[in-house]
Amino acid sequence: MILGVVALCVYLVDQIAKLLVVAHLYEGQQIQVLGQLLQFHFVKNAGAAFSIGTGSTWIFSIVGVGVLGFVIWYAPRIRSMAWAVLFGLLLGGLLGNLTDRLFREPGFGVGHVVDFLQIPVLPAIFNLADVAIVSSMVLFLLLTLRGVGLDGRHAPDSDVEPESEPGSEPVAGVPVSDEPVADGPAADEPTGEPISKQPIANQHDKPQS
Question: By the 8 A CB rule, do 101 and 113 touch?
Answer without folding.
Answer: yes
